[in-house]
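tool_call: predict_structure(chain=1)
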Amino acid sequence: MKEKILNKATELFTRLGFKSGTMDDIAQELGISKKTIYTHFPNKSKLVESCAKDLFCNISDGVAEIINKNHNPIKEHFLIHKYALNKLKEEKESTQHQLRKYYPKIEQKMRKQKLELMRKQVINNLKRGKKQGYYRDDIDIEVVFQFYYMTLEGIKNSDIFSVKKYTIPFILKHFLEYHFRAIASEKGLTYINHLKNKDL
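tool_result:
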């Protein structure tokens, strides 16, 4: 029953948002009492935290599946961003934004886990890119990662880019081109130009 509650709550929070989705909604959709939910999750915050972890694990598994296919580093990175964008389309509002606004302590925990995972994946991508000749030999991997993470987080959390004027996919497309053209070798730039008119 605990897993059923978690799955339904995750689906409902993704659809309605963490604040709008209620324990009553979950109980009604599952045809159970709220008391049953509280048997497994003592309060809504604990349920939200479990759902946030569940969403994080699902996305992490999807990213790992892309990485395991051993694409070249540039294609891998594009595919990961495409996958992440598709997941974002399923949400009423950014999960991270909702957590920061309504459940800041949970958001801090999740941000730390996300940073650790991103650091591992992006640094590995950069090392492979240098080794395979897609990225310049002279890039400082740690500095590039910090720029990448800082800019990506800034795009999602800043008021600079108005969602009325710029969509997230539009901004990310330009960010990725900016990022890759800053670190790509001649081989990498040739590959990027080759991809430009293709839908990955």
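agent: The first helix runs from residue 2 to 16. Proceeding to next step.
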